[in-house]
Amino acid sequence: MTTLTNSRAKRYMPTFVVPSAARGSALDLAFKRVIDIVLAAVGVAVLTPLWLVVALLIRISDHGPAFFKQTRVGKNGQPFTMYKFRTMRVDAEQVKASLEAANRADAGAGNSVMFKMRDDPRVTRVGRVLRKTSIDELPQL
After folding, report:
1. What's this model's pTM, rounded to 2 decimal places?
2. Which residue windows are transmembrane per the record (predicted)?
3. Which residues neighbour 1 within 8 Å (Cβ) at sequence distance 6 or greater?
4. Three-class SS of residue 65?
């Protein structure tokens, strides 16, 4: 069996080119935008009761803000603020340093660059359910 070099492999790679006529006219793009806005509004209306229940559960279980916000880098290097339902204790960042040291000790010689614990004690009971069901990601919509 022979292997293809990079240049030969690229020649056989399937490509998909959208003809300029199929990209849509200004009217098509405007119609698509209206549909996107209407569907987003319906989605928000349907999900708002769930968001309120989740926010209330977070506030009751761990007296802190319901939302976690963080600045991330997006398209073209532009920073944006990402919102999620809070799944960790309010003091999670302060506790992280001591947990990182314990995590490295457990890892032994194969220390990982990334800090991720299997059963992170900073995650709240409500937070575990939110993470399992990915409901904590809903505010990003």
Report:
1. 0.60
2. 37-58
3. none
4. coil
